Amino acid sequence: MDYAAQRRGQRGLFEGLYRVIMRRNSVYVTFVITGAFLGERAVDYGVHKLWEYNNVGKRYEDIPVLGQRQSEE
């Protein structure tokens, strides 16, 4: 069996992605927009956690005297 006949029997990863995602424009655009939205959320979450980790003790919420109000009695 030659290589070309063997390739016809097996479909590659990119061919499968093409058939599922990129064949129709509406599905492809939806995939890109959803991926961009989820990617932006993941990067935002990661950067926020990294910023909090690097600034422990320097934030307004971490200073015990600042954020407390006098109780009215």
From TrEMBL:
Compartments, record wording: Mitochondrion inner membrane
**What's the main place this protein lives?**
mitochondrion
* Highest rank taxon of the organism: Eukaryota
Which keywords fit this entry according to its UniProt record? Electron transport, Membrane, Mitochondrion, Mitochondrion inner membrane, Respiratory chain, Transmembrane, Transmembrane helix, Transport
**Membrane topology, from the record:** Single-pass membrane protein
One Pfam family recorded for the sequence = UCR_UQCRX_QCR9
SUPFAM superfamilies, A to Z = Subunit X (non-heme 7 kDa protein) of cytochrome bc1 complex (Ubiquinol-cytochrome c reductase)
Role: Component of the ubiquinol-cytochrome c oxidoreductase, a multisubunit transmembrane complex that is part of the mitochondrial electron transport chain which drives oxidative phosphorylation. The complex plays an important role in the uptake of multiple carbon sources present in different host niches.
Note the subunit structure.
Component of the ubiquinol-cytochrome c oxidoreductase (cytochrome b-c1 complex, complex III, CIII), a multisubunit enzyme composed of 3 respiratory subunits cytochrome b, cytochrome c1 and Rieske protein, 2 core protein subunits, and additional low-molecular weight protein subunits.
Tell me the protein family, please. Belongs to the UQCR10/QCR9 family.
Q: Report what the protein is called.
A: Complex III subunit 9
**Gene source species:** Hibiscus sabdariffa (roselle)
Q: What is the lineage of its organism?
A: Eukaryota, Viridiplantae, Streptophyta, Embryophyta, Tracheophyta
